[in-house]
Amino acid sequence: MTIQHPSKPIVLIHLAASVQGRAVVRAALARGFRVRALVRDRARADALPSGPVEWVEADLDDSEALRAASAGVGHAVLQVPTGPADTMAAQAARAATALVDAGLRSIVLKLASASRPTQCAEPSFVGNARVEDAVRRAGLACVTVRPTMYLDNLLKPSARREIVEDGVFSPPIAASQRIAWTSVDDCARAAVELLECSATGDYRIAGPQSLDGDELAACISAGLGRPVAYRAQAIDVFEREVDATMGAGMGKRIGSKFRYFEAHPEEADSILSRPYTPQSGLEEFKPTDVQTWIRVHQRDFLCDGEPQ
Questions:
Q1: Cα-based angle 149, 153, 159 (whole degrees, multiple of 5)
Q2: CA 308 to CA 45: how far, in whole Å?
Q3: How many Cα atoms are found within 13 Å in the side-chain-facing hemisphere of 27?
């Protein structure tokens, strides 16, 4: 049972109805925080973790609603949905301004994907950089949490179906690329631990193992108790499939990161391959290895719909 501590401040969690947001809600509740969960649509709150959560309906495009949602909070975990860089920056600026108006001086900025520390033209890296800049321009210090790549991608309906029915995992990245896979729950735990100790700085969250595609498949096979092979998918095929499910143009937007990794293998190694190393502020944090994560999520591989 989660025990909340009245002395702990309220944590405002943006994008709380997303897969990553739900993980942050769970992590904050587990640490005894009082949680205010910001959702775009209150009806989606039923999909969130059970517990003493205050639900607030607000859109990142609505400055007035963001100010109301931010009033009285002591901490915030800011997440911005992936989209055009201008949109991401504007949403981050509105959220950050509302938090400054509420009296906050620092937040945890949780990025949806890995970032390249220096400038480049790849859209997802540009979007992340613009979000960070918007937060700082608003007057907030932030601790930034950056993941490598999420194991939770294995639980997307199409990937899960291929793994269970065909015995294949086929992301748009070469089998030779080593990745220290992390998870949304690990990143959420790290974010809340950093929030609790008022850390500042930049934190790359990775798993404890650096695995190539075949090694990853072996871990999936061991965790599920059935053979699974790694078969890299052509990026143009991946982009067409994304367009079919998410709308025209989304494929190229999401696929651009994988094209960047393919074209810049040294950068891909720098961003993805290095396993987690202990960092100040995360003394309690222990990343989950792939095989353990698979075993914990065995039932999710066999259920219909989006995993909760």
A1: 140
A2: 12
A3: 26
d(CA 74, CA 193): 15
DSSP 183: -
User: What DSSP element (H or E) covers 249?
Assistant: none
- Bridge partners for 76 per DSSP: 12
The whole-angstrom separation of Cα 161 and Cα 307 is: 13
Tokens 């108006």 -> residue? 101
Of residues 192, 181, 141, 140, the one with CA closest to residue 273: 181
Asked whether the beta carbons of 39 and 16 are under 8 A apart, the reply is yes
Burial of 278 (0-12, 13-18, 19+ CB in 10 A): exposed
- Give pLDDT tens digits along the chain (308 positions): 344 556 678 999 999 999 999 999 999 999 999 999 999 887 766 656 556 899 999 999 999 999 999 999 999 999 999 888 999 999 999 999 999 999 999 999 999 877 765 667 888 889 999 999 999 999 999 999 999 999 999 999 989 999 999 999 999 999 999 999 999 999 999 999 999 888 888 999 999 999 999 999 999 999 999 999 999 999 999 999 888 888 888 888 888 999 999 999 999 999 999 999 999 999 999 999 999 999 999 999 887 554 44
Residue 237 amino acid letter? V
Amino acid at 13: I
Contact present, 184 and 272 (Cβ < 8 Å)? no
CA atoms lying within 13 Å on the CB side of residue 2? 18
pTM as predicted: 0.90
